[in-house]
């Protein structure tokens, strides 16, 4: 299981993979434990990027952050979106 923080700005998506499962303090919620975590830039599937851009646009935002979880089988799950 991997966690992804995607930032959508207009028609662009930037994504970072968060290695939250390596530390027991961040397995449930990585926020607040950032100093102990590894972050790496990652690329989302283009179809998912398009869906995130569409979601943010439909709500009327130009920018939002979106948290996702990726299963070991490569399935993406939406967790939350913040403006």
Annotate the secondary structure layout.
Elements: E1 2-9, E2 12-18, E3 39-42, H1 46-59, E4 63-70, E5 76-82
Antiparallel strand pairs: 1-2, 1-4, 2-3, 4-5
The helix-strand sequence is: EEEHEE
> How does the overall form come out from the CA principal axes?
globular
- Taken as a percent bin, the fraction of beta residues is 35-45%
Low-confidence stretches: none
Q: Determine the mean pLDDT.
A: 86
Radius of gyration: 13 Å
Largest sheet: 5 strands, antiparallel
Helical content class: 10-25%
The count of DSSP E runs of length 2 or more, i.e. the number of strands, is 5
Commentary on this structure:
This protein is α+β, with helices and mostly antiparallel strands and 83 residues long. The chain has 1 helix and 5 strands; from the N terminus they run βββαββ. Strand 4 and strand 5 form a beta hairpin. It is globular, with a radius of gyration of 13 Å. It starts with a strand and ends with a strand.
Q: What does this entry show, briefly?
A:
This protein has 83 residues and is of the alpha+beta class.
């Amino acid at each position: 299981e991997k966690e992804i923080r995607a930032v959508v700005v207009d028609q662009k998506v930037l994504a970072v993979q968060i290695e939250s499962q390596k530390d027991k303090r961040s397995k449930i919620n990585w926020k607040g434990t950032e100093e102990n975590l590894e972050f790496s830039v990652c690329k989302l599937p283009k179809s998912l990027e398009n869906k995130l851009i569409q979601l943010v646009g439909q709500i009327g935002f130009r920018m939002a952050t979106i948290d996702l979880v990726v299963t070991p089988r490569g399935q993406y799950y939406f967790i939350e979106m913040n403006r």
